Every structure is written in structure tokens, then in C-alpha cells.
Amino acid sequence: MKQDNLLVIGALGQIGSELTTALRKNFGEKHVVASDIVEKRTMKNQEGIYEHLNVLDKERLKIIIKKYKISHVYLLAAILSARAEDNPHFAWRLNMESLFNVLELAREGHIKKVFWPSSIAIFGPTTPRKSTPQHTVTDPTTAYGISKLAGERWCEYYFEKFRVDVRSLRYPGLISYQTQPGGGTTDYAVDIFFQAVKKNAYTCFLSEQTYLPMMYMPDALRATIEIMDAAAAKIKLRSSYNLSAMSFSPKEIAQEIQKHRPDFKISYKPDFRQQIADSWPASIDDSFARKDWGWRHAYDLKKMTQDMLQHLHK
Q: Which residues are CB-neighbours of 16 under 8 A, at least 6 positions away?
């Protein structure tokens, strides 16, 4: 894989910015092309190649793939859960047409391997909430969740019909010290750390006992790289794999922060995101990922909290 050339689409986003850095560290700067709709690159991507790309422009995407002889594409461009509710039609168009453009180029033989992220947003109010299984009821109630569920089905379809090597993870809430919250329902678990350091206080838009599956970004990046690096025979699911590390409530994460900052205060003011969170799992069963390609998480709530606060203080 080190000789392959990789394209990250949505490289300036929450996951993309850090994944680009990780991929360049693993495979070399000249082998990883960052792209996003923003014309000027940010400081995080100054070191390597950057291309301005609207992923809805299939011809421009094809030009970039041919120019750099791209073999692996990481499609991370998307509108997340909360923001998608403000403009569901555009969210559907961006989230779905971008996937079709990449899958079609793979079907035509221009791409060898595709990574596309799904989400716990594919689950809904009648899904079992505790230890949500890999195969279960999926009845999303958000525009974002609907697009992700449809995307899973199309990924599986393109594999079964055209043998497109597409791989996917159902990300839980992702927490990072490197990027600000990006419009997701689980982003309270990012913002709470930033506000703890800035103001020593936080007002949460979810209730104190709202449990959601979460993961520290280093684990998410490693899972993404590992599933793409795994032998094709080990990838038994071509829709998307459940992925998990920990599950906690706003009250529990606040208590963990208070072990390091005893004066930290939290208050609660649930808004429309509470209804979204209530329709999602409280915990995830990711045994298929652990069995098929050896997934193991490294960070729990205690270890993540300590690392987050240390980096934010710096």
C-alpha cells in the first residue's frame, strides 16, 4: 500500500484534517493528496499536495485522480446531523452524489479501493439502544441518517454487482483536541473540553443522562487505516461495520473533567439535538469488527480526558 497514491476528499474537516496528517506520516507526503471545497489550504495541509475540489463535480474529481494516479480514495465530505436538518435537500445531494461519483469512478476502473464513513445515525427510535447489534432495525429519523443508511446499501450494491472494493465504518461520536465542533449531535463531547479550558464552565444541549457511543480521534484514525490495510478476504461486511470504544453521559464526562479541574461547572439546556440523540444507540456491539479484522480500541473515558486536557492546555 505504501506505493499507492491516496486522495482524501473533505481533508479540511474534523476527520479529514487529522486523517490526512496520519496518512502522510504512514505513507509519505508525496503519496497523499488532500482536497476540499475551500480554495486555499489551511496550515495543517501546507506540507503536502492540496487540490481545490467540489466533489459534486465528477469530471474535476476524475482529472485529479488521473493527474496523481490515485488508487485509494477516502471520501469524508458530508453535512453532519444537526446542520443537515437545516437544509435536508442539499444534505442528501452532497452526501449521496459525492458517494455515487466515487463509486462510479471505481466501477469504471479509475480507483482500486474506497473508504466511506457511515454513522450511528443510521439507527432510529425502534433500534435496540443498548449494545446495538451489527444487524438490527435501522429506521433513521434525520436527513443525515437517511443518507448514511442509503449510502450503506449502495456500497454493498457496488461490491456485490461490480466488485468495487469499498470499506466503511459506522463512526460513533468522535472527540478531538485538534478541531472545533463541526455541527454534529455528539459534538457536545468535544465542546465541553474546549469550554472547560476557556471558561471552566459549559452549558450542554443534551440532558445529563443521555448516553451515546463515543471514540477518541486517535482510535478512529487507526481504525480507518487498519480497515483499509486489511486483506480483502477479512472484510466480510461491505455495508458498514459497527465501531465502538466507550459510552458515557454528559454527567459522567463532566465528573471526569472535575477530577482534573475541580471548579468546572456544567449546566443543561436541551435543544432540538436531544430528540436526535434519543433516537440513537446508547452503546454499540462492534464484535464483527473485532472478529473480522482485529479491531481493538486503546482509549477509555479516563485516558481520553487526561490526554485531551493536557493537549488543550498546551
A: 8, 9, 10, 34, 36, 74, 76, 77
CB-CB neighbours of 268 under 10 Å:
17
3-state SS string over 55-100? CCCHHHHHHHHHHCCEEEEEECCCCCHHHHCCCHHHHHHHHHHHHH
C-alpha cell at 193: 473540553
pTM of the full structure:
0.92
Q: What is the pLDDT of residues 172-197, one digit of tens each?
A: 999 999 887 766 788 899 999 999 99
Chain-centre distance for alpha carbon 288: 18
Among 50, 68, 74, 144, the active-site one is 144
Q: Give helix then strand counts, H and E, for the chain.
A: 11, 14
Cell of 79: 453535512
Contact 2, 28 (CB under 8 A): yes
Phi, psi dihedrals of residue 240, rounded to the nearest 5° = -170, 145
Backbone angles phi, psi at 268, to 5 degrees: -130, 130
Distance of CA 192 to the CA centre of its chain: 19
Beta-bridged to residue 70, according to DSSP, are 5
Give the cell for residue 83.
446542520
pLDDT 10s digits, 284-311: 999 999 999 999 999 999 999 999 999 9
Task: State the Cα–Cα distance between residues 56 and 37, nearest whole angstrom.
Answer: 10
Does residue 299 have an active-site annotation?
A: no
Kindly calculate the radius of gyration of the chain based on its CA atoms and give it in whole angstroms. 19
